[in-house]
Structures are given as C-alpha cells and as structure tokens.
Design a protein that fits this description.
Two copies of one chain form a homodimer. Chain A has 436 residues and is of the alpha/beta class. Chain A is built from 15 helices and 17 strands. Chain A has three domains: 167 residues, 3-Layer(aba) Sandwich (Rossmann fold), CATH 3.40.50.720; 162 residues, Dihydrodipicolinate Reductase, domain 2, CATH 3.30.360; 83 residues, ACT domain (Alpha-Beta Plaits, 2-Layer Sandwich), CATH 3.30.70.260. In chain A, strands 7, 8, 9, 10, 11, 12, 13, 14, 15, 16 and 17 form an eleven-stranded mixed beta sheet that branches. In chain A, strands 3-2-1-4-5-6 form a six-stranded parallel beta sheet, with helices on both faces. In chain A, a hairpin with an 8-residue loop joins strand 14 and strand 15. In chain A, helix 1 packs across helix 13 and helix 14 runs antiparallel to helix 15. The first copy, chain A, is elongated. Strand 12 of chain A pairs antiparallel with strand 12 of chain B, so a sheet runs across the interface. Chains A, B: Pathway: Amino-acid biosynthesis; L-methionine biosynthesis via de novo pathway; L-homoserine from L-aspartate: step 3/3; Amino-acid biosynthesis; L-threonine biosynthesis; L-threonine from L-aspartate: step 3/5. Chains A, B: Its EC number is 1.1.1.3.
Chain lengths: 436, 436
C-alpha cells in the first residue's frame, strides 16, 4: 500500500529519536499500521546536522513553512517546541488540511482551545500523546481506555527532573541546591532549570490531562503552580518519619464546586505505589468511579521514549486519516459540542490535608496555644512529632499532620499561630494527599 | 443521534456491573462516544434476577441465541464465560454481522484464531479489553499505545487470587493452605480454586498479550504453566532475605530462537515497582525497545473494574462501527496478512536465573560437591545463604541464586546434585527474573 508521508519539523532530541525509531522499526510499524510511514522531508535550522542524520533518505530544508504547505506531506510532526513559531506552523498546517502530531505541551496548554477548534473546523486530527509523560500512553488511557468512567481525580509525577532531585535529596540527605547541580551535571536538569523546578512544565501537562478527563476547556492560565526550589531537606526527613514521601504532584480533581488544578510538593503515604516512583521516572494515578485507581508508569522524557509516543500517534493518524471525522476519537476526549465550562477552584477553596512545621520556644503552654487556634478553625490533628531540644537549646520544632480542611482555614490558622510570641520564624506548610 | 443498541449475554457479576455503570454514567459516556449506548435486550438463564436488575428498562429473555440474531442489536456483549456455548454464540453473532465485545479470556486463548478469522472475513469487530487484567487498559496500550516499539518482553501479575495469597503468605508467614481458606472466605478465591491457583487463568491472559505483542498467532496450547499450590512459605522468607519477592508472573519474551510463554512463581528484586503490587491488584510490565519499561496497574477483576473495560470497548466499537474495516485497529495489533508464526520455545530452552534450596547433611565437602556440579554445567552462583544448623540438628539448608543459564542445564545439574549422598529430599527450584 502507498506509504504515508510525514513532514518532520525539528530534528533535535525527540525529532532525532523519531527519525531513528521509524528507520529501525519501520517494517514492524508498517505491519501494524497497514502501510509504511516514511519521513519525506525534514525541516531544521541546522542543515548540516539534518543531512548527517537523514543520510540522503529524504529531502531536507531549513524552511519549516515550506513543509506545512508541501502538497506531498500528509502529516506534519511538530517537534520545534515553544509557542510562537510552533503555533504559526501548526495553525498553517491545519489550514492546509494536514494532520498534525506534536509533543508541544506548552503550545497545547496555552493555545489548545484555539488549535483544536481550528482542527475541528478543518476536519483534521491533532495528536499529542508525546506532550504528556513521554512514552507512557496516558492520553490514550484517559481518552479511550477509561471512557466508561466518571474520572474523579488524577495525580501525576509528570516531571522527571524534579522527581530525580527529590529522590536524591531523600536518599542522600542533601539540599536542593546541591542536588540541582548534580542533576545539571548528569543532564537531568537544564542550565536554566526554572521551567522544571518551579512546576511550570508539570502544570502544562496537568492542564492537558484535566481537560481530557473532565471534558473541560484547557485552563492552564488558572492553574496553581508551586515548585520544589524552596523545599527543605528537613521536611523530607520528618515526612519519612511520619510514613510519607514528598513528591511534586500535578493534581486535578472534580468537586461539586468546580475543578482543582494544582502543582505543588505533596506528602503521600510511603506504601502507595506512586510514592515509590524514583529517579527521572514518571507515573500517573487516575481514579475512575468504575475502575477504581489505575496507574501508568514509564520514562517521561528522552529521545526514544518520546519518539514512541510520537510514532504511536502517527500510526493512529495513518489508520484514520481517510475516515470520516465522526469515527475519530475527539481531541479532548469528549465530542466538541459536549464540552463544558467547569470553573477552576481558587486554592483557598481547595480541601486537603496539611503538614506543618513550627519552630517554637521550648516552654510549656505553646502546644496548647497552637492546638487551640487549630481547633478554632475546626482543624483536627492526625499526627505530631515534637523534637526533643538538644542540651542547652532554647528552641525546638513541632511537626503536625492535619486532617482535611479548606486551604483558607489553614491559612487563617497559620497567620494566628505565626503571631504567637513563642513561635519563631516562618511556618512551613506542605499539602498531603492520601490518594485513595 | 440515534442510540447504539447492545444485546447483553449474561447479567452476572460483570454483566450486572456493565448494566449499572452504563445506567449511572450514560450521559457522560454519550458525550464521549457521540451517541447514547443503550442495552436493548438482556439474555440470562435467571429471568427473575434479570427482571429485577433491569427494572423494565429493556427487553429480557432466556434465549441468548435469539439475541445474536436480533436485527435490532448492533453489538453483542458476551459475558457468559466458558468456551462451549459462548463460542457458538460469538461465532453466530459474527455470522449475523454483529460486532462483539467479550471478557472471555478462555474462549479467546483457545479459539481466538478461529474467531478473529471469522470476524475479519465478515468485517466486524471483536473487542476484548476486559479479557486481560480487568479495568487496566493494557490491550489498548499494547495494540495502540506502543505501536512504535519492537516489544521485547511482558511480565504480568494478572491473577488477583494468587497475588492476594502470595501477599498474605509473606505478610503473615502462613502456609498456602491456610491462606487459601482465608481467601475463599473473603471471596478472593473460588470454591474450586484450581483454575486460578494452578496458573491456567493467568496463562489465558498471557497468551492473548503475547499474540498482540509479537504479531503471533494465539498459542495457549503451548504455554508452560505452573501455579503456586506447591510453594513453601520458607522459600518466600529466604527470598526476602536475599532481596527478592515471589510473584506468580506470566512472562512472554521474544528471543532469537522463538517466543517464551510461561506462567510460574518467580523471584523478582524487591525494589522493582511490580514487586510491590500487593493484594488482589494486577500489574503488567512491558519492555519496548524505544519506550523502555512501562507499567500498568489497577484492579484486575470485579464487577465495575471489568465493566469499565467492557464499556471502553463499546465506545470504541460505537465510534468505528460504520467505518471501513481498514480504519480499525487490527484484532491482534498487526494486520491479518502481516501475522507471523514464531515457534513457542520449550521450557528446556528458556534462559533465566534460578533459586535453589537444598537440604543437606551438616558436614564438610558438601558445598564443594554442589558447586563443582554447577560449574560443570557452566552455571555460576550469584548469592548464597547457608543456614546455621540448630543445636543437635544434623541437617541444614543451602539456598543459592544462580546467574542466567538454560533450563536444561540447571535441570541436569539438579539431577546430579540430588543423587549426592549428603543431599536429603527434593531440591526446590524457582525461577528468578531481574525485569530490567
């Protein structure tokens, strides 16, 4: 059968991986797809590298706009990244009636609503398995595998850099700054790591999963985002003593009031499978009302793991590209006319449990004052450690886990506790999820 | 849009779950599928229970053959189980041009080749996500999510009963017989547990995954099957001391010589995520050449988890049922004309590592004799425990882990070791997989 022709935009890490996996496994992929999938043209600014990688097996150009207008191209694979030129290219490809496969989470999180509307109007597919959690087929699981369910929540370790850093901080008892340098040396963190360590990358991915899970429009601009750069190794240790592990989770949850959409360091019980996802690995835990909890685990980044997702999309599009649009899986899992506009909840309205660490003067009555304030806000305490002060030390630390409460209540309590004479310095507040 | 009409065969546990999840989440499912999915007729021998469960919302009958011939039925859902009447019904439904959704692993493992050929000829779909690992969308992951990959191997905990029993044996230090009775009391094991505890159920599921992974025809009749009924609690303890956990794994692996297809108790390193899958949960670890290892975890049985998979298939079939067959995902992942016939390897040719436990007379020279025999077969030792004999005891135990070797070599060595004067009783031999 006639091969399908792919125009590849960008042959960096993921583009290079896609090119080489297609070459290596092309025969087996064709046996699955029903026809060969071939890269017919590659656009990249670095023509010399592009020629070296493609070895005359296809055309090369430095003009990406020529590729999205090329009449011989059936599917455009956008692996340039960023959300300016990439957006123009994707919209132009759609306008030209091309199907698009992309790994660009920033683009979809910010401009997905516009892009999917354009694709819908033109009757083309925009596939994006590679945009979330690399090679793990989590988009497929959410959009197709769990269609029977009312999805209740999703909690994911969806940034390998931060998970690597947290694993190392715990294992070796080192500080964030020291481990970040090590991660940069090993290539697990970028020279400018802000995007990863401050949780922005995770929030992009979370926004995409949230839209698909709830049939809601993409709401990245309303996500609450906290990273791990302020996390103290002492809190990782105390959490362990209490039976918890700290992970940077992306959490989205449907409540009767709206949708929670938040990325922040989170205590989770050590006995949960997801608490044991170590190093640069990714995992997504999904709670559906019928299936219960399911978990998806694998490499969330890297050339070939991400290429695995790009090519899975290519096979899907190859199978479906001549079919009526009605036969295809909707871009955001729900039919375009069946999307809803659920409000994203402000963090003050989120209900969860909390870990608090207070530095206090070592004298009687302090604990009574603190617990009185918590009780006034109807916050009850689940567990507590009071560190024994060392010989001659006049201050000590109290660590508490609370039961569930609304974030505005804990914040009100913290303000009052911080104003107590006996309380010294800032109060550490981390969120805790049981994930049951 | 016009609803799609489902004929449900069997309204027991899974049928009842399917009926009630469709009722509860029908509106949300229609928003995904693009049209309502409604059960229009249910066939079950127990008419009274059927009427009670369906509450006049659809027709009921005790004649399943009438349903598969019913012109108003678009999709037949077969949840009767077994492989005699169910086979006739499925083949009849296909002959009548109906699409089929089934959870029947025994039927597909034994008669899948015939059923898929009939469906292919007639241009209908046979969907079977629910046949493997309950609500975990593992069939979709293998058939669609990982299409870029040359799949190297799959290792799965795909029987909840046995995983529950092994978890309890380890946690509580109890024997198989005691825990089995407890599992039966809790409803985790059938009154006749043979099918589960002897590994047959796991082998059915493994055969289906193996065919999909490698594009091979269904080869259940050649699977090697060992259960857990002979497993001694002592070996679970020794394995723990050595850093391993014992799980009943279904393993299928592509080698240059053929396909390994085997179910047996297996030692796996405790630090692997899959080693920490406890109780009745299921998990499948898949190694692809591009994506690396990915893991899928969730409930492998039960009314609603299995219904989740049945209904996901119903949504897929609903979307695709008027599309050209060429647009659909092939039944066994590879196009029918691109299937191969890889040989299934006899166990003697399988290469893996081993755990050995020997009861020996407590005297010098025994260990030298044993290691000499292993060396003669080119088997090297990775770790060893020699239990200190108690005061006055004349026998002791030696536990060894070997490096990889061919099964015929270890068996030859065991025969020679067993004939040594100093070796008392049977030698325990378990297989060990690193799963990397």
């Amino acid at each position: 059968m006639k091969p399908i022709n792919v125009g590849l935009l960008g042959i960096g890490t993921v583009g290079g991986g896609t090119f080489s996996v297609l070459a290596r496994n092309g025969e087996e992929i064709a046996r699955r797809a029903g026809r060969p999938i071939q890269v017919s043209v590659v656009a990249d600014r670095n023509l010399e590298r592009t020629r070296r990688l493609t070895k005359d097996s296809c055309r090369v150009t430095d003009d990406a706009f020529a590729v999205v207008s090329d009449p011989d191209v059936d599917i455009v694979v956008e692996l340039i990244g960023g959300d300016s030129v990439a957006k123009e290219l994707v919209l132009q490809a759609i306008a030209n009636g091309k199907h698009v496969v992309t790994a660009n989470k920033a683009l979809l999180a910010k401009h997905g609503n516009e892009i999917f509307a354009a694709a819908q109007k033109k009757g083309v597919m925009v596939a994006f398995e590679a945009a979330v959690a690399g090679g793990i087929p989590i988009i497929k699981a959410l959009r197709e595998g769990l269609t029977a369910n009312r999805i209740e929540w999703i909690a994911g370790i969806i940034n390998g850099t931060t998970n690597f850093i947290l694993s190392e901080m715990r294992d070796k008892g080192l500080s964030f700054d020291v481990v970040l340098k090590e991660a940069q040396r090993l290539g697990y963190a970028e020279a400018d790591p802000t995007f990863d360590v401050e949780g922005v990358d995770a929030a992009h991915k979370l926004s995409i999963m949230s839209a698909i899970a709830f049939g809601n429009s993409m709401s990245f601009d309303q996500a609450h985002i906290e990273g791990i750069s302020q996390l103290d190794a002492a809190d990782i240790r105390y959490a362990e003593q209490l039976g918890y592990r700290i992970k940077l989770l992306g959490i989205t949850k449907r409540t009767s009031e709206g949708v929670e959409l938040r990325v922040h360091p989170t205590l989770i019980p050590t006995r949960r499978l997801i608490a044991n996802v170590e190093g640069a690995m990714n995992a997504v835990l999904v709670k559906g009302d019928a299936v219960g909890p399911t978990l998806y685990y694998g490499k969330g980044a890297g050339a070939e793991p991400t290429a695995s997702a790009v090519i899975a999309d290519l096979v899907d599009v190859t199978r479906m590209h001549t079919a009526d649009p009605e036969h295809r899986v909707p871009h955001l899992a729900f039919q375009p006319d069946a999307m809803v506009d659920l409000p994203i909840l402000p963090m003050a309205d989120v209900i969860t449990s909390y870990y608090l660490r207070l530095r206090v003067a070592d004298r009687t009555g302090v604990l009574a004052d603190v617990t009185r304030i918590l009780a006034d806000q109807e916050i009850s305490i689940d567990a507590m450690i009071q560190r024994e002060p060392a010989e001659g030390e006049e201050q000590t630390e109290i660590i508490m886990l609370t039961h569930q409460t609304r974030e505005r209540n804990i914040d009100a309590a913290i303000t009052r506790i911080a104003s107590l004479d006996a309380v010294k310095g800032a109060i550490v507040r981390l969120r805790l999820e049981e994930l049951l």
